[in-house]
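Suppose you are handed only these lines of text.
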Amino acid sequence: MSGGARERGFASEVVEADGSYEATARVVDPGRSEDDRVVEAALRPRRLAEFPGQPRVRDQLGLVLEAARRRGRPPDHVLLSGPPGLGKTTLAMIVAAELEKPLRLTSGPAIQHAGDLAAVLSSLDEGEVLFLDEIHRMSRSAEEMLYLAMEDFRVDVIVGKGPGATAIPLELPPFTVVGATTRSGLLPAPLRDRFGFTAHLDYYDVADLVQILHRSAGLLGVEADEDGIREIAGRSRGTPRIANRLLRRVRDWAQVHGEGHVDLAAAQVALALFDVDAVGLDRLDRAVLEALCRRFGGGPVGLSTLAVAVGEEADTVETVAEPYLVREGYIVRTPRGRAASPRAWTHLGITAPRSAPLQDLLPVDGDSDDTAPGRFGG
Ligand SMILES: Nc1ncnc2c1ncn2[C@@H]1O[C@H](COP(=O)(O)OP(=O)(O)OP(=O)(O)O)[C@@H](O)[C@H]1O
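From them, the structure of the protein bound to adenosine-5'-triphosphate can be written out as follows.
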């Protein structure tokens, strides 16, 4: 996000300070790496009509924006939720482009004090779009200031300290907030209520990813055939960011080992080289499944024991491998630990022992956030 902002020279840009987009060696990581940062700016669809997938969100957002345009007023504030890499930043940019207004970008972690937010809000021009990424990570004091600003287009600037402090109201021109979050459950209700339009982005199905990959291949000048694109789409975990990244790795392979043409064979060999299997699992994912099935008879086994078995930190297993494995139904989180589901045994090509715990285990309630268990129509 911030790299793209810099390239476009937006007037106010706040770079996220928490390292949440830091580079990662995992080719199937849904987070943004440094390498992605550069390429993503070029691959983002610019208008709603060019945005493949998420048809409901696209139609609803299109209606909200068109109505606002006809009224000549800024639209309601927009909240976009969903896992990383599905297009929240892209849609925020599209909102501004469709309204033909500038976009300001900042993020929750960058707004730690109400004063930080006041500075951004007071510099907005009429109709501008303010993109607040990771909005659930804003400080409480900034959140309270945002309620007022979103509802009444006003901020109270506190002058002075202690008993002598006074609040000076500052009128703001009407503007639109586009908030993005991977954890909508963490947003306080009063903040959520200020958004007139809320959309949840879901994982993409393979057909949508195929469309996205064809478009990206065109923009990158990569020759790619349908079978090659399909193969990449099927391994992309329902996530456009991962799809675009895998396409670049297959293109690299094709350029070094062939004529640069992305076809089925190139996709299969290149993605095997990068340890991404036919359904998008990587080495860590498979290590977790192998340990669970081969060493612990399918579980249930505690997270820390499982982590030791795969030689990783418990936190890494829980936050990096587990969300996708749970979402796709390979493992189940139970009150007594992690258990392999029938899909895990099938994927490893092992027959589950009769004693394997399959049906009698219930998932733990309240485990989910926007990044874990969901649906992937791949
Ligand atoms: N529907 C789509 N069509 C084409 N490309 C897409 C689509 N959605 C996302 N992308 C591409 O995927 C990449 C990641 O998208 P984006 O940065 O908008 O995701 P995000 O949801 O904001 O992620 P994060 O939560 O990490 O900020 C970009 O290169 C973008 O162009």
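What can we learn from it? The chain has three domains: 6-200, 206-273, 283-361. The chain has 15 helices and nine strands.
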